[in-house]
Amino acid sequence: MVKRILAIVFILIIGFWMAKALDQVPFGQDRMLVGKYYLEHVKEETGAVNAVTAVVVNYRGFDTLGEVTVLFIASTGVAALLWRKKRKRTAKTEGSVVLTTGARLLLPFIMLFGVYIFIHGHLTPGGGFPGGATIATAFLFLYLAFTVYEVDHKIFEPLEGLAGVGYVTVGLIGLAIGGYFLFDWIWQTWGIGKENIGRLLSAGFIPIIYTLIGIKVGTELTGIVDNMIKEPEEGGQ
Amino acid sequence: MGEASRISRYIYTVLILFIIWLFLTSSLDPQELTIGAIFSLVVGALTYEVFTERGLGNLNPKRVLYFIAYIPYFLWAMIMANLDVAYRVLHPKRPINPGIVECKTTLTNNVGKLALANSITLTPGTITLDVKGDRYFIHWIDVKDKSVEGASENITKPFEKFLKVIFE
C-alpha cells in the first residue's frame, strides 16, 4: 500500500515537472526552424509529395536504416532466444471452415493492400513500415487459421537478407555517384521523373527503398511470429 | 467439382487483384496501371494456390449475374432483419425467444459455406456459431421451429437458392 502511494506521488511529481516544461512551448504557433526548410524544398529536392517520407527516407535516411537494423536485430534475437533443433507447430484445433476459408480468401487482398501502401509511400500516408506490417498480418492470418501452416524458410530468410542488402546497395551507389551515403542518385543525378511530381514514378529512390523496406519488414515480422508460435517437440532439445 | 488448372487459377487471381488495384488507386494513369499490373502478377503468383480452387470458372456469366442480383437481395434481407431486431429492442415486453438451432445446408463448397455463414450472421437475429460438415449451429433470437428441417427452411433456404448457383 505504501509502495503504491509512493509510486503515485512520484509519478505525479514527474508529470507536473514535464507539464511545467512543456508549458514553455506555445501550441499552434509557428515554431518551425528546420521544418520550414523541409516543407519549402521537399518537392524540388526529393520529388516526394509526402514530406514525412522525404524526411524519413531522404533527408534523414540514416535513421530509417537504423530502424531497419533494429527490426532485424529483434527478429534475429527472437530466433536466437527460441532456437531449438526440432521445433514445430503443436496447435491441434483447426479453425472452423468459416475461419480457414476466410483467411484464404483475404490473403491476396491484404497482401495487395500492403503493396499498395508501400509503393505509394511518397504520395500518401504510409510507407514501408505500415505496408510491411500489413503483409505480415496476412501471414499471421494463415498461421492462426491453419494448424500446420509454415512459411517456406528457404525463400523467406534469404529474401529478408536480400532486401536489407538492397537498401545498403542503393545507399552505396549514392556514395559512389554523389559522394555521400544514401545520396538520391536517381533524382539528383539522373533526374528520372522530374516532369511528373505527384505521379507514381517520381521521388527518386524513395519507392525503391520503400519496396525493399516493405519486403524486409513483412518477412521479418512474419519470421518473429513463426518463431514464437512454434514449440519444441516432446523430448526434443 | 475438381480443381481448375493452375494457369486458370493464376489468371483469375491476377484479374481480381488488378480490379481491386483499380478501385484502390481510382486512377487510370498509365504509370499506376503498369505498376498495378506488375504487383498483381507478383502477389497473384504468391497467393493463387490458396485463393481459388475453380479459377476462371468463377467468371461464368450466370454466376456473376446471380452474384450481382444477390447483393440487393441480401441488403434487403439485412434491412428487414435490422428493423425486426430494433422492434424487439424497443418493444416494452421484449418478445425474444432465444435458442441454438441446427440447420442443414446443401452447399458443398467451402467458399459457399463461408458466404452462407456470413450472410446468416449479417442478418441480425441469427448468428452462426459453428459449421461442421453440412451442419450449421445458429443462435436464433426468436426460435420458431426447433427441428433441423424447419430451421433450415427459415434460415438457410432463402440464401441458398442464390449461393447454390454462385458457388457450386
From TrEMBL, chain A:
Source organism per UniProt: Thermococcus litoralis
Name of the protein this chain belongs to: Cation:proton antiporter
Annotated transmembrane regions: 65-83, 95-119, 131-149, 161-182, 197-215
Boundaries of every MrpA C-terminal/MbhE domain copy: 12-86
Membrane topology term: Multi-pass membrane protein
Annotated InterPro entries: CPA3_antiporter_subunitB, MnhB, MrpA_C/MbhE
Keywords in alphabetical order: Cell membrane, Membrane, Transmembrane, Transmembrane helix
Pfam family, one: MnhB
Principal subcellular localisation of the protein: membrane
GO cellular component, one term: plasma membrane
Record's subcellular location: Cell membrane
Xref: NCBIfam families: PRK08386.1, PRK12567.1-1
Occurrences of domain Na+/H+ antiporter MnhB subunit-related protein (ranges): 98-221
From TrEMBL, chain B:
Topological category with respect to the lipid bilayer: Multi-pass membrane protein
Transmembrane region(s): 7-27, 33-52, 64-83
Molecular function, one GO term: monoatomic cation transmembrane transporter activity
Record key words, sorted: Cell membrane, Membrane, Transmembrane, Transmembrane helix
Any Pfam family: MNHE
Subcellular localization(s) per the UniProt record: Cell membrane
CC terms in the record's Gene Ontology section: plasma membrane
Main localisation: membrane
Domain of life: Archaea
Protein name: Cation:proton antiporter
Organism: Thermococcus litoralis (strain ATCC 51850 / DSM 5473 / JCM 8560 / NS-C)
